[in-house]
Amino acid sequence: MSNKKYDNINIPLDIDEAIEKGVSKALKEKNKNHKRNNLPKIAAASLVGILTLGALNPALASKIPFVGNVFEAIEKNIYFPGNYSQYSTAINETAYSNGIGVTLSEVVCDGQSLYITYVVENEKPFKYTSWGNGKKLDMNQLIIEEAYNKVSFSDKELDSTGFAGLEGKFIDEYTFVGVQKYKINEIKEEVPNEFTFKTKLKVIDNYAINEGDKDDVTWGTWAFNIPVKVNKELRNIINLENVENDFVKVNSISITPFDMIIKNSYKKGTWDEYRMTVFDDKGKKLEQSESTADNDNKGDKTYLQSPKDSKNIRVVIEKPKYKELKSQPGTYEEIGSDVVLDEVINLKK
């Protein structure tokens, strides 16, 4: 399907610049904060033809060797590495809009998180695929914005906090492959064994590398409606009873081959007064992606790298100590910390 006839639609320059500035600002904030922002609404009737273009183009997917194998291409180099491809299900549905084809390639769901891989192919070369000195941008993010995402068993939209878009890489100047992670465990309803996932992408932003450069933003419609099977056997939930003291209690640990969630509650002070570090049974520090607080700020939930084959983990929780800088009133520096908990926790199911 060709969209070249829409290239001749005249849009006033001032509107076009306002759109670009608004989108760029919103997406830069999204990238900086790793939070979803709502892009500004645009009241311009002349844009309707451009923004509502979208059609399935199955022929496009057959040209891309990575379709159905995206996890294999990126799983060892993403922030939380894992053997995603071992458990993935091929989907291979393609939507095409405004010169960009997006193929939803594979899906994995362990009942804790939902992982979706995409192949994004542009008719023209992406503007930013290297650092400008010839060095390829490896594992760079292509930023996306969804109009919505839905699952069939809940009215709540899924949280994709963590990365600002697709975590992946450019395989050439026309093609990006990446994965989007959704925190399905944040939904209150019980996750069924099977459900339907719907999403509609509305913005694809090739993020500018250097300050002063303009993002290459494409608006369009890339919609998908796919079945998902949940492999609940991949998730090990350990509820803890005796890992506590006068300061803190470690309530539970939830582990999959891809990530781990530790829930704590604090008896003195609030969650942001503490710092947790976790090690596997070989002493390797496990990376963290984020922590979120409970409503009363007395507890938190931390997302970490999966300990994989470890028989146990070591959890160290500290309470940092600060002093105010005399030269900069209102500014504090850390001068040490008190260890309030140091426990080795077995991970047997």
Note down, in words, how this protein is organized.
With 349 residues, the chain is mainly β. It folds into two domains: 4-232, bacillus anthracis domain (Immunoglobulin-like); 235-346, Immunoglobulin-like. Helices cover 10% and strands 43% of the residues. It has helices at 13-33, 48-51, 58-61, 70-74, and strands spanning 55-56, 89-97, 100-109, 114-122, 142-151, 165-172, 175-182, 194-206, 216-229, 236-239, 248-255, 259-266, 275-279, 288-293, 299-305, 312-324, 332-346. Strands 1-2-3-4-7-6-5-8-9 form a nine-stranded antiparallel sheet. Strands 10-11-12-15-14 form a five-stranded antiparallel sheet, with no helix packed on it. Strand 2 and strand 3 form a beta hairpin. Residues 1-63 have low confidence and may be disordered. Residues 286-307 are annotated as: Disordered. InterPro entries: DUF4179. It holds the Pfam family DUF4179.
* Termini separation: 52 Å
Structural class: mainly beta
Q: How many domains comprise the coordinates? A: 2
What is the strand tally?
17
Residue windows where pLDDT falls under 50 for at least 5 positions: 1-63
**CATH homologous superfamily descriptor of the largest domain:** bacillus anthracis domain
Chain-averaged pLDDT:
81
Radius of gyration over alpha carbons? 22 Å
Per CATH, the architecture of the largest domain is Sandwich
Helix content: under 10%
Number of helices: 4
Major β-sheet annotation? 9 strands, antiparallel
Strand order of the largest sheet: 1-2-3-4-7-6-5-8-9
Could you please say which CATH topology of the largest domain applies here? Immunoglobulin-like
CATH top level assignment of the largest domain: Mainly Beta
